[in-house]
Structure formats: structure tokens, C-alpha cells
Hints:
Order of helices and strands: HEEEEHEHEHEHEHHEHEH
CATH class: Alpha Beta
Distance between the termini: 32 Å
CATH superfamily: Alpha/Beta hydrolase fold, catalytic domain
Strand order of the largest sheet: 2-3-5-4-6-7-9-10
CATH architecture: 3-Layer(aba) Sandwich
Strand content: 15-25%
Radius of gyration: 18 Å
Amino acid sequence: MSLFRNHLLSAVSLLLVAGCTVKVEESAVLHPDHDDALTAVALSRHIEPIAIRQADGAVSRGVKISRPDAVATVLYFGSNDYRIDVDGQKYAHYFEPLPVDVIQFDYRGYGLSDGTTSVAGVMADVEHIYDEVRAQTRGTLIVHGLSMGAFATEHLSAVRPLDGVVIEGTGGAFRTMIDKGVPWYAKPFVTFDVAPDLMKIDPGADLGKSSAPILMMTGDKDDEAPKIYAEDIYASLPHDRVQLLIVPGAAHRDSMDKPEAIAAYRQFLLRVTGKA
């Protein structure tokens, strides 16, 4: 989402004087990149590769990191620039204090995965990935999304009965993010032509359709997806099943590196599994 925000502000700055329409394509959010081979991350003795074929024949590729003391499995969806070969080890490290297996996938068109990237394609893939992982997983399966992965997880929570949901560094409804991202003095001069599938992104509405326990966390230093988005979403949800943690000192991608986040995650595991 950081690149979307920078794209938006740059466009507004360039066009403010004349006044015109800013076209927001899906490429403002999606940033695919390819790599041809599994790296040393996937060769670890604790990690096994996973491949899931999507409806159009594209293959989504990921890894499963297992540990003998796991009380649950976390299906993790990363940010809009996340790739397993570059980021997988870093984010797996965040889960080391927790007794969980972790499954990660590259989005379509990213890293090791096939396909042409689109918002609709990513959302459909996430549903199919979840269904396949759920069928192969014993016990509790928690879905955790960071940034763009939060959007994917929020969408999934609306269409599948999930055991537990962790939302990290979420934005708001796409229209809301555009409105908040434009300075007040620029609004009379700028209109937006936004890709239709981006306009469907509405985290609050999606989470409102879920009955799963939800842990939301966001950094108090996050200037890419400011905490106001999570706070607004939280305010719209039933607090008996939703917890919001504002993580002290955390920026957009490092909430899980903070002890407060790990402590909250342990309590969440206890809530959804009876173990931690």
C-alpha cells in the first residue's frame, strides 16, 4: 500500500495546478515480480514447498514451515511487494516465538507463482488456496494478512467460515483511502477514475460478515496505513469477538517484531485453540 500512497500523492502534486482526473489502475497496488527457482529458504529441513493449481491452470507456489509443538497453522498473506524468496525468511522469523506452523504463498504473477496479476485473480486464488490448505490441515487454521494481504484476508473472512483472523496494517475502504490521501486544498481540483475491482475493497464490510474471532494490530508509527483505518474498522465491529492492538513503536511491516504483538498473538491462540 505504500507504493499506492506515493503514486496517489505524486499524481495529485503533478495535476493540481490544471485540475483533472487521476486514473488509478490496479498496478498502483499490485507489484508482481518473478524468480525462477526456490532459494535456500525453501531448502531448509523445516520447510517443504507447496503448489496449488488454480482454475485457469496457473500454479500458486508457497512453502510450509512446520514445528513439532504447533497448536495451530497460520496461512499468511503478505504485502503488495511480498515475495517468498526475498521476504519469506524474515516473516517466518516473526513467528518463531509462537507454537504455529506457517504457510506462505506468492501471489499470482509474483515470485514463484504463475499467472497474470489482477485484484480479481488474487482474490479468487486466495479462496482456492484457503480451501486446499483447509482440506489438508488438521486442527485450527488461522488466516493472517499484512497490508494488501489484510485486504485478501478480510475478503476471505466474508466468504469462508474461518477459525481465526489476524489483520495487520490494514487500510480502509479504497474510496476512503483516496479521500484521506488527498489534501483538503486539492480536492476541488482533482477527481479519480479508479479501477472497478479496487473500489470493491471494503475491509469493514468484509469483516462485518465474519463470525470468526479477530485480532487487529497496527503500528502507532505506521505512516503507510495509519492507525485511523484500523480504529474506524474496529469501531464498526462487535467488540466481543474483535480485539484491536495499537503496537507501540511499530511501523507498517514490523508489528510482529514487537513483544506486545507476540503477547497478544499468544492470547489469541489461547482463545481460538485453548492452547498457547
